Amino acid sequence: MARRTIFIGFRHAARKLWGAEGLAQCAERMSAEARSACMDPLVITSEMLPERFVLEWYNVAWEGPAQRDREVYNAFLDRMMDHGFGAVRKLLLRLATPGLVIQKCGELWRHDHTHGELTYQLTGPCSAAVVLSDHPYVKTALARSSIAEVYRYALSLSSANDARSQHHLQGEARLIVRLTWSR
Fold it and tell me: What CATH number is attached to the domain comprising 176?
């Protein structure tokens, strides 16, 4: 399950980037179950919703309004973070060093997700490896690239400059995201 702030962030990002038409296009592409939980209500009242709805959001935004344009799609993810995670954690992120954000990643993950394990290793003064294990986001290329961008952008909300990410799959159940930044 994933925290509702993620879905509120998705809706806001779609509306901000693509207007009511883009938001409607996303809704049209969703399954009836996801649409009734994430799009139809004016207020999302469930504290947690299934992770498969996050995966649907990734797909409908990528295939729909983003038109498979990586830059446009990443802007969508970044706006989602601004209005979901970023809005909730704004003070922490503004005051935190990149290293502190990395060290808190497991705790931050667990606040928003009921499953999966997020661990880290600081690999240098301006680099780290973050590992997501045993989670649906590891299973598809789009979800892997999406979560790598989410981590990169979360880091950029701290005092990190020029945050970058690279990712790869290790085995079938581990996503390794390598993050670098400058001071």
Answer: 3.90.1520.10
Quick: pLDDT tens for 20-30.
999 999 999 99
Choose one of 42, 68, 86: the last residue of a domain. 86
DSSP state of 173: T
Q: Are residues 116 and 49 in the same domain?
A: no
In this structure, the dihedral spanned by the alpha carbons of residues 121, 80, 56 and 45, taken in order and rounded to 10 degrees, is 110
How far apart are the two ends of the chain, measured CA to CA in Å?
35
- The separation between CA 143 and the C-alpha centre of its own chain, rounded to angstroms, equals 9
pTM of the predicted model as reported, rounded to 2 decimal places: 0.95
Q: Which residues contact 14 (CB under 8 A, 6 or more apart)?
A: 22, 23, 26, 61, 65, 76
Token pair belonging to 126: 């301006």
